[in-house]
Amino acid sequence: MSNSSSMPQFLLLAVADRRELQLLHFWLFLGISLAALLGNGLILSAVACDHHLHTPMGFFLLNLSLTDLGCICTTVPKAMHNSLHNTTTISYTGCAAQVFLLLFFVATEFYLLTIMCYDRYVAICKPLHYGTLLGSRACAHMAAAAWTAGFLIALLHTPNTFSLPLCQGNALDQFFCEIPHILKLSCSHSGYLRELGLIVFSACLIFGCFIFIVFSYVQIFRAVLRIPSQQGRHKAFSTCLPHLAVVSLFISTLFFSYLKPPSISSPSLDLIVSLMYSVVSPTLNPLIYSLRNQELKDAMRKLITGCFSEAINSPSSACYGPH
User: Fold this and answer.
1) Residue 286: which of 73, 29, 40, 37 has the closest Cα?
2) Residue 107 CB contacts under 8 Å (≥ 6 apart), including other chains
3) What angle do CA 266, 271, 276 make, to 5 degrees?
4) What confidence tens digit (pLDDT) does each residue in 115-161 have?
5) Which of 17, 85, 130, 289 is 20 to 30 A from 248, alpha carbon to alpha carbon?
6) What whole-number distance in Å separates Cα of residue 246 and Cα of residue 254?
7) By CB neighbour count within 10 A (0-12 exposed, 13-18 middle, 19+ buried), where does 243 fall?
8) pTM confidence score
9) Alpha-carbon gap, residue 278 to 15, rounded angstroms
10) Quick check: helix, strand or coil at residue 77?
Protein backbone atom coordinates (compact mmCIF):
# COMPACT_ATOMS: atom_id res chain seq x y z
CA MET A 1 0.00 0.00 0.00
CA SER A 2 1.84 3.04 -1.23
CA ASN A 3 -0.21 5.74 0.34
CA SER A 4 -3.29 6.24 2.48
CA SER A 5 -5.38 7.81 -0.28
CA SER A 6 -5.55 4.45 -2.12
CA MET A 7 -6.92 2.67 0.95
CA PRO A 8 -10.75 2.47 0.69
CA GLN A 9 -11.40 1.20 4.21
CA PHE A 10 -9.97 0.00 7.50
CA LEU A 11 -10.72 -3.19 9.40
CA LEU A 12 -11.68 -2.66 13.03
CA LEU A 13 -11.12 -5.13 15.83
CA ALA A 14 -13.67 -7.96 15.97
CA VAL A 15 -14.57 -8.08 19.65
CA ALA A 16 -15.99 -11.60 19.26
CA ASP A 17 -15.92 -14.35 16.63
CA ARG A 18 -19.09 -16.22 17.57
CA ARG A 19 -22.40 -14.78 16.43
CA GLU A 20 -23.96 -15.09 19.88
CA LEU A 21 -21.15 -13.05 21.43
CA GLN A 22 -21.42 -10.44 18.68
CA LEU A 23 -25.11 -9.98 19.46
CA LEU A 24 -24.29 -9.83 23.18
CA HIS A 25 -21.73 -7.15 22.35
CA PHE A 26 -24.42 -5.25 20.42
CA TRP A 27 -26.92 -5.34 23.29
CA LEU A 28 -24.23 -4.38 25.80
CA PHE A 29 -23.25 -1.32 23.78
CA LEU A 30 -26.91 -0.48 23.25
CA GLY A 31 -27.48 -0.52 27.02
CA ILE A 32 -24.40 1.63 27.62
CA SER A 33 -25.40 4.17 24.97
CA LEU A 34 -28.97 4.38 26.30
CA ALA A 35 -27.66 4.88 29.84
CA ALA A 36 -25.34 7.64 28.61
CA LEU A 37 -28.13 9.30 26.61
CA LEU A 38 -30.52 9.10 29.57
CA GLY A 39 -28.04 10.35 32.17
CA ASN A 40 -26.59 13.19 30.13
CA GLY A 41 -30.01 14.06 28.71
CA LEU A 42 -31.40 14.40 32.23
CA ILE A 43 -28.53 16.69 33.22
CA LEU A 44 -29.07 18.84 30.12
CA SER A 45 -32.81 19.09 30.81
CA ALA A 46 -32.38 19.70 34.54
CA VAL A 47 -29.84 22.49 34.05
CA ALA A 48 -31.96 24.10 31.33
CA CYS A 49 -35.23 23.89 33.28
CA ASP A 50 -34.23 24.57 36.89
CA HIS A 51 -33.16 28.15 37.64
CA HIS A 52 -31.33 26.94 40.76
CA LEU A 53 -28.81 25.29 38.42
CA HIS A 54 -28.25 28.44 36.35
CA THR A 55 -24.83 28.76 37.97
CA PRO A 56 -21.29 28.52 36.56
CA MET A 57 -21.01 24.87 37.65
CA GLY A 58 -24.39 24.10 36.09
CA PHE A 59 -23.33 25.80 32.87
CA PHE A 60 -20.09 23.80 32.73
CA LEU A 61 -21.95 20.58 33.56
CA LEU A 62 -24.22 21.25 30.60
CA ASN A 63 -21.19 21.62 28.33
CA LEU A 64 -19.60 18.50 29.83
CA SER A 65 -22.75 16.50 29.09
CA LEU A 66 -22.61 17.64 25.47
CA THR A 67 -19.03 16.39 25.12
CA ASP A 68 -19.96 13.09 26.82
CA LEU A 69 -22.80 12.57 24.34
CA GLY A 70 -20.41 13.45 21.52
CA CYS A 71 -17.88 10.81 22.65
CA ILE A 72 -20.54 8.11 22.88
CA CYS A 73 -22.13 8.98 19.53
CA THR A 74 -18.74 9.00 17.80
CA THR A 75 -17.57 5.50 18.78
CA VAL A 76 -20.50 3.34 19.88
CA PRO A 77 -22.93 3.44 16.88
CA LYS A 78 -20.36 2.07 14.41
CA ALA A 79 -19.34 -0.66 16.87
CA MET A 80 -23.00 -1.61 17.29
CA HIS A 81 -23.52 -1.64 13.51
CA ASN A 82 -20.52 -3.91 12.95
CA SER A 83 -21.61 -6.33 15.68
CA LEU A 84 -25.17 -6.49 14.40
CA HIS A 85 -24.19 -7.00 10.75
CA ASN A 86 -21.18 -9.25 11.44
CA THR A 87 -18.66 -6.94 9.80
CA THR A 88 -15.52 -5.06 10.88
CA THR A 89 -15.11 -2.47 8.13
CA ILE A 90 -15.11 1.31 8.32
CA SER A 91 -14.54 3.59 5.35
CA TYR A 92 -11.42 5.72 5.08
CA THR A 93 -13.54 8.89 5.32
CA GLY A 94 -15.53 7.47 8.22
CA CYS A 95 -12.32 6.62 10.05
CA ALA A 96 -10.97 10.15 9.55
CA ALA A 97 -14.26 11.64 10.77
CA GLN A 98 -14.21 9.36 13.82
CA VAL A 99 -10.65 10.39 14.73
CA PHE A 100 -11.45 14.09 14.30
CA LEU A 101 -14.69 14.02 16.30
CA LEU A 102 -13.29 11.88 19.11
CA LEU A 103 -10.24 14.15 19.49
CA PHE A 104 -12.52 17.18 19.39
CA PHE A 105 -14.85 15.95 22.13
CA VAL A 106 -12.14 14.36 24.31
CA ALA A 107 -9.88 17.44 24.23
CA THR A 108 -12.83 19.76 24.88
CA GLU A 109 -13.95 17.61 27.80
CA PHE A 110 -10.53 17.76 29.39
CA TYR A 111 -10.35 21.55 29.11
CA LEU A 112 -13.86 21.78 30.57
CA LEU A 113 -12.79 19.61 33.51
CA THR A 114 -9.86 21.98 34.07
CA ILE A 115 -12.23 24.98 34.04
CA MET A 116 -14.55 23.20 36.48
CA CYS A 117 -11.57 22.73 38.79
CA TYR A 118 -10.96 26.47 38.61
CA ASP A 119 -14.62 27.01 39.45
CA ARG A 120 -14.28 24.88 42.60
CA TYR A 121 -11.04 26.64 43.53
CA VAL A 122 -12.63 30.11 43.31
CA ALA A 123 -15.81 28.96 45.09
CA ILE A 124 -13.90 27.56 48.09
CA CYS A 125 -10.69 29.60 48.24
CA LYS A 126 -11.94 32.99 46.98
CA PRO A 127 -15.70 33.00 47.65
CA LEU A 128 -15.92 36.82 47.89
CA HIS A 129 -14.59 37.12 44.33
CA TYR A 130 -16.71 34.33 42.86
CA GLY A 131 -19.25 36.59 41.18
CA THR A 132 -16.52 38.73 39.66
CA LEU A 133 -14.20 35.97 38.45
CA LEU A 134 -16.97 33.66 37.22
CA GLY A 135 -19.62 35.96 35.83
CA SER A 136 -21.80 34.90 32.92
CA ARG A 137 -19.54 36.58 30.37
CA ALA A 138 -16.39 34.98 31.82
CA CYS A 139 -18.03 31.54 31.86
CA ALA A 140 -19.13 31.90 28.25
CA HIS A 141 -15.62 32.93 27.22
CA MET A 142 -14.02 30.01 29.07
CA ALA A 143 -16.45 27.48 27.58
CA ALA A 144 -15.89 28.92 24.10
CA ALA A 145 -12.13 28.70 24.65
CA ALA A 146 -12.46 25.02 25.64
CA TRP A 147 -14.49 24.15 22.53
CA THR A 148 -12.11 26.13 20.31
CA ALA A 149 -9.05 24.46 21.82
CA GLY A 150 -10.62 21.04 21.29
CA PHE A 151 -11.34 21.88 17.65
CA LEU A 152 -7.76 23.06 17.09
CA ILE A 153 -6.31 19.91 18.67
CA ALA A 154 -8.45 17.75 16.36
CA LEU A 155 -7.52 19.92 13.39
CA LEU A 156 -3.84 19.61 14.30
CA HIS A 157 -3.73 15.82 14.49
CA THR A 158 -6.27 14.47 12.00
CA PRO A 159 -4.87 15.81 8.69
CA ASN A 160 -1.33 14.95 9.72
CA THR A 161 -2.27 11.38 10.68
CA PHE A 162 -4.19 10.68 7.49
CA SER A 163 -1.51 12.19 5.27
CA LEU A 164 0.91 9.42 6.30
CA PRO A 165 1.62 6.65 3.78
CA LEU A 166 0.32 3.34 5.12
CA CYS A 167 1.99 0.11 4.08
CA GLN A 168 1.38 -2.24 7.01
CA GLY A 169 -2.08 -3.36 5.94
CA ASN A 170 -5.39 -1.85 7.02
CA ALA A 171 -6.26 -3.76 10.22
CA LEU A 172 -6.66 -1.70 13.38
CA ASP A 173 -6.51 -3.55 16.71
CA GLN A 174 -9.25 -1.36 18.13
CA PHE A 175 -13.05 -1.19 17.89
CA PHE A 176 -12.85 2.43 16.68
CA CYS A 177 -10.28 4.51 14.80
CA GLU A 178 -7.58 5.70 17.17
CA ILE A 179 -4.36 7.51 16.21
CA PRO A 180 -1.83 5.16 17.92
CA HIS A 181 -3.22 2.19 15.97
CA ILE A 182 -3.20 4.08 12.68
CA LEU A 183 0.43 5.07 13.28
CA LYS A 184 1.34 1.38 13.55
CA LEU A 185 0.36 1.02 9.88
CA SER A 186 2.61 3.85 8.72
CA CYS A 187 5.78 3.22 6.73
CA SER A 188 6.98 6.82 6.91
CA HIS A 189 9.52 7.19 9.69
CA SER A 190 9.61 11.01 9.46
CA GLY A 191 5.81 11.26 9.33
CA TYR A 192 5.50 8.91 12.30
CA LEU A 193 7.95 11.02 14.31
CA ARG A 194 6.13 14.21 13.31
CA GLU A 195 2.77 12.90 14.55
CA LEU A 196 4.42 11.47 17.65
CA GLY A 197 5.88 14.92 18.30
CA LEU A 198 2.41 16.45 17.98
CA ILE A 199 1.06 13.89 20.44
CA VAL A 200 3.82 14.74 22.91
CA PHE A 201 3.09 18.46 22.42
CA SER A 202 -0.63 17.89 23.13
CA ALA A 203 0.29 15.70 26.10
CA CYS A 204 2.43 18.54 27.48
CA LEU A 205 -0.55 20.89 27.25
CA ILE A 206 -2.73 18.35 29.02
CA PHE A 207 -0.03 17.74 31.62
CA GLY A 208 0.16 21.49 32.23
CA CYS A 209 -3.58 21.52 32.88
CA PHE A 210 -3.14 18.49 35.14
CA ILE A 211 -0.49 20.34 37.17
CA PHE A 212 -2.93 23.25 37.49
CA ILE A 213 -5.64 20.84 38.69
CA VAL A 214 -3.31 19.27 41.28
CA PHE A 215 -2.15 22.68 42.53
CA SER A 216 -5.76 23.87 42.74
CA TYR A 217 -6.84 20.84 44.73
CA VAL A 218 -3.95 21.24 47.14
CA GLN A 219 -5.21 24.77 47.83
CA ILE A 220 -8.81 23.56 47.99
CA PHE A 221 -8.09 20.82 50.51
CA ARG A 222 -6.04 23.20 52.64
CA ALA A 223 -8.95 25.65 52.67
CA VAL A 224 -11.51 22.91 53.39
CA LEU A 225 -9.55 21.59 56.35
CA ARG A 226 -9.64 25.09 57.86
CA ILE A 227 -13.47 25.14 57.80
CA PRO A 228 -14.55 24.94 61.46
CA SER A 229 -17.79 23.00 61.04
CA GLN A 230 -17.83 19.34 60.04
CA GLN A 231 -20.96 19.94 57.94
CA GLY A 232 -19.18 22.64 55.97
CA ARG A 233 -16.19 20.40 55.34
CA HIS A 234 -18.47 17.57 54.23
CA LYS A 235 -20.33 19.84 51.79
CA ALA A 236 -17.09 21.15 50.32
CA PHE A 237 -15.64 17.66 49.89
CA SER A 238 -18.88 16.39 48.36
CA THR A 239 -18.65 18.95 45.57
CA CYS A 240 -14.93 18.42 44.91
CA LEU A 241 -14.41 14.67 45.18
CA PRO A 242 -16.71 13.74 42.24
CA HIS A 243 -14.79 16.12 39.99
CA LEU A 244 -11.47 14.68 41.18
CA ALA A 245 -12.71 11.13 40.51
CA VAL A 246 -13.81 12.04 36.98
CA VAL A 247 -10.52 13.81 36.21
CA SER A 248 -8.40 10.96 37.60
CA LEU A 249 -10.20 8.28 35.58
CA PHE A 250 -10.21 10.35 32.41
CA ILE A 251 -6.58 11.50 32.49
CA SER A 252 -5.02 8.19 33.55
CA THR A 253 -6.72 6.16 30.81
CA LEU A 254 -6.18 8.84 28.16
CA PHE A 255 -2.47 9.19 28.92
CA PHE A 256 -1.97 5.44 29.03
CA SER A 257 -3.79 4.95 25.72
CA TYR A 258 -1.72 7.50 23.78
CA LEU A 259 1.66 7.42 25.55
CA LYS A 260 2.15 3.82 26.66
CA PRO A 261 5.29 2.04 25.39
CA PRO A 262 4.66 -0.33 22.45
CA SER A 263 6.22 -3.16 24.47
CA ILE A 264 3.22 -3.34 26.82
CA SER A 265 0.60 -2.98 24.10
CA SER A 266 -1.90 -5.79 23.55
CA PRO A 267 -5.36 -5.87 21.89
CA SER A 268 -7.18 -6.73 25.14
CA LEU A 269 -5.35 -4.08 27.19
CA ASP A 270 -5.79 -1.42 24.49
CA LEU A 271 -9.49 -2.27 24.25
CA ILE A 272 -10.08 -1.95 28.02
CA VAL A 273 -8.16 1.33 28.34
CA SER A 274 -9.86 2.92 25.33
CA LEU A 275 -13.27 1.80 26.60
CA MET A 276 -12.56 3.55 29.89
CA TYR A 277 -11.94 7.03 28.45
CA SER A 278 -14.21 6.90 25.39
CA VAL A 279 -17.26 5.00 26.71
CA VAL A 280 -17.20 4.29 30.46
CA SER A 281 -16.17 7.78 31.60
CA PRO A 282 -18.84 9.63 29.53
CA THR A 283 -21.44 7.16 30.80
CA LEU A 284 -20.46 7.43 34.48
CA ASN A 285 -20.03 11.22 34.57
CA PRO A 286 -23.76 11.95 35.06
CA LEU A 287 -23.98 9.34 37.83
CA ILE A 288 -20.86 10.60 39.63
CA TYR A 289 -21.95 14.24 39.53
CA SER A 290 -25.61 13.67 40.36
CA LEU A 291 -24.97 11.35 43.32
CA ARG A 292 -22.90 13.97 45.15
CA ASN A 293 -24.75 17.11 44.08
CA GLN A 294 -27.95 17.60 46.06
CA GLU A 295 -29.25 20.48 43.92
CA LEU A 296 -28.76 18.44 40.76
CA LYS A 297 -30.47 15.41 42.31
CA ASP A 298 -33.44 17.55 43.37
CA ALA A 299 -33.71 19.12 39.90
CA MET A 300 -33.58 15.72 38.18
CA ARG A 301 -36.16 14.33 40.60
CA LYS A 302 -38.49 17.26 39.90
CA LEU A 303 -37.95 16.83 36.17
CA ILE A 304 -38.80 13.12 36.22
CA THR A 305 -41.77 13.66 38.55
CA GLY A 306 -43.05 16.51 36.37
CA CYS A 307 -42.78 14.40 33.23
CA PHE A 308 -44.50 11.49 34.95
CA SER A 309 -47.38 13.63 36.25
CA GLU A 310 -47.87 15.36 32.92
CA ALA A 311 -47.85 12.05 31.06
CA ILE A 312 -50.50 10.63 33.42
CA ASN A 313 -52.72 13.71 33.36
CA SER A 314 -52.37 14.38 29.66
CA PRO A 315 -50.87 11.43 27.76
CA SER A 316 -51.04 13.19 24.41
CA SER A 317 -49.13 16.26 25.55
CA ALA A 318 -45.38 16.65 25.29
CA CYS A 319 -43.20 16.61 28.36
CA TYR A 320 -41.45 19.88 28.91
CA GLY A 321 -40.29 19.30 32.45
CA PRO A 322 -41.18 21.32 35.55
CA HIS A 323 -42.46 24.84 35.04
Assistant:
1) 40
2) 149, 150, 153, 154, 202
3) 130
4) 988 998 998 888 888 888 898 899 999 999 999 999 999 999 999 88
5) 130
6) 12
7) buried
8) 0.85
9) 16
10) helix
